[in-house]
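chain below, 145 aa
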Amino acid sequence: MTEEHLIDIQVHSERFIDMASRTVRFGRLERPDGYGKRVGDCGDTIELYLSIRGEQIQMVTFQIQGCLNTNACANTLAYLVEGRTISDSWQVTPENIMDYLETLPQDHAHCAELVVGAFYHALNDYNATKHESWKRVYRRSQPSL
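prediction:
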């Protein structure tokens, strides 16, 4: 390889590689307490599912149709919010995800924004149905990705 080609290679942090390669959170929750979906301008799509007990996020799962960067961001979000309270979780920002990953390419910052947007939708969905959980049964079923 020439020196010119070496400049083009993106070196990622261990955190980025770890989060980008995780698959344990892939999938739907059968009866999520919160659900959010976002489609980015780039075409990436994320559906995010929350399991919440006692105002604390127990589990985050997701389905992604998109790039490795979006996957890394989604896993990072789950890592950052699982075990936190709902009110505390509203403080998570795309910048928190980018800071944690250390090497998310700047031209993929929109991936962190996409994931956090879907998360906020899921929190809003939870807040809208938490006192009337019967409404979750009548939620429109979303097609799988």
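The chain has one domain: 12-126. Helices lie at 3-7, 14-21, 68-81, 86-89, 94-101, 109-129, 134-137.
thats it, cya
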